[in-house]
């Protein structure tokens, strides 16, 4: 990405929340607005969910996203402030992340493809627990995992659903992925695994008719799957901007020492 000048061309986008829409109107009045096609930076106003939505929507453009929190959760966002916005953006630190590429195969053997910036999760659809077979790089590593589900996450996503499922937090430069069970029943004491970022992960759904499972790549869901293949999409790079001293790397590190 080219270096940003002191007054980068900005395009503002906002979630449906009233506070986000009001902030967008004020910022456009103060700093002007260009179309996203002409912008150097896209400013996203909302919460983490809206940041993910914006990243997905603009991933083909490669444009950096600078988020400001006007939502409920703001781990991926900067603090909201209206003053000196161009200067904050020009001095911001960059976080480059690579999404996961998911191919989910349903009962009709139809392939569904999607990208996940945070995680790909498999979830049971009914009261019946899921039964999964887990393979890494073509080798079966777990014949049967009985659970509510499982997920594979990127370092950027390791502080999201993965953390809630008691998975490890991964530094951004660790070049690793976290494979984390969700409420594992058998083997009960298995806590998951850290994998190299080059790993190719396959989940096979056992007893799929009796124990239906869905696959979710961020907010894209496929129901009644029979297998899922996941690998890191190294050819896709997404750029987020964070205020100096408040980089995503620093936030991930800080999160590991929070109590």
What does this structure look like?
The mean pLDDT is 94. It contains 5 helices and 17 strands. The protein has 259 residues and is of the alpha+beta class. The protein has a 6-stranded antiparallel beta sheet with strand order 6-5-16-13-8-9, with no helix packed on it. The protein has a 6-stranded antiparallel beta sheet with strand order 12-11-10-7-14-15, with no helix packed on it. The two termini are 37 Å apart. A hairpin with a 4-residue loop joins β5 and β6. The chain is elongated and about 60 Å long. Helices cover 17% and strands 38% of the residues.
Please give a handful of descriptors for the protein shown:
alpha+beta; 2 domains; 259 residues; Rossmann fold; 17 strands; single chain; 6-stranded antiparallel β-sheet; Tumour Suppressor Smad4
Q: How many extended strands?
A: 17
Judging from the principal axes of the Cα atoms, what is the shape?
elongated
Instruction: Label the structural class.
Output: alpha+beta
CATH superfamily of the largest domain: Probable inorganic polyphosphate/atp-NAD kinase, domain 2
Please report the first level of CATH classification, the CATH class of the largest domain: Mainly Beta
Order of helical and strand elements: EHEHEHEEEEEEEHEEEEEEEH
Mean pLDDT: 94
How many helices does DSSP assign? 5
Q: End-to-end span in angstroms?
A: 37 Å
Q: How would you summarize what this structure contains?
A:
By secondary structure, the chain is α+β, with helices and mostly antiparallel strands. It has helices at 18-31, 48-58, 85-90, 161-164, 248-255; strands at residues 10-14, 41-46, 65-69, 93-97, 100-106, 111-116, 119-124, 130-136, 139-147, 149-153, 176-182, 193-196, 201-206, 213-217, 220-222, 225-232, 238-242. The chain folds into 2 domains: 10-97 and 237-255, Rossmann fold (3-Layer(aba) Sandwich); 100-232, Probable inorganic polyphosphate/atp-NAD kinase, domain 2 (Tumour Suppressor Smad4, Sandwich).
């Amino acid at each position: 990405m080219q270096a940003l000048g002191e007054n980068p061309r900005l395009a503002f986008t906002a979630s449906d929340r009233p506070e986000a829409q009001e902030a967008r109107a004020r910022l456009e009045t103060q700093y002007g607005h260009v179309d996203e096609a002409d912008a150097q930076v896209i400013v996203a106003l909302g919460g983490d969910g809206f940041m993910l939505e914006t990243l997905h929507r603009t991933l083909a453009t490669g444009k950096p996203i600078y988020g400001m929190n006007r939502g409920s959760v703001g781990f991926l966002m900067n603090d909201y402030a209206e003053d000196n916005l161009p200067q904050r953006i020009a001095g911001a630190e960059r976080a480059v992340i690579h999404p996961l590429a998911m191919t989910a195969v349903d009962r009709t053997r139809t392939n569904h493809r999607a990208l996940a910036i945070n995680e790909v999760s498999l979830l049971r659809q009914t009261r019946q627990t899921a039964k999964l077979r887990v393979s890494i790089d073509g080798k079966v590593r777990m014949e049967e995992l009985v659970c509510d589900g499982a997920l594979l996450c990127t370092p950027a996503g390791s502080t999201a659903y993965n953390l809630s499922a008691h998975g490890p937090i991964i530094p951004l430069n660790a070049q690793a992925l976290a494979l984390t069970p969700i409420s594992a029943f058998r083997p009960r004491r298995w806590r998951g695994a850290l994998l190299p970022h080059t790993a190719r992960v396959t989940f096979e759904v056992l007893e799929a008719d009796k124990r239906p499972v869905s696959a979710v790549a961020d907010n894209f869901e496929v129901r009644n799957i029979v297998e899922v293949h996941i690998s890191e999409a190294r050819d896709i790079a997404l750029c987020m901007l964070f205020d100096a001293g408040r980089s995503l790397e620093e936030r991930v590190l800080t999160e590991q020492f929070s109590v």
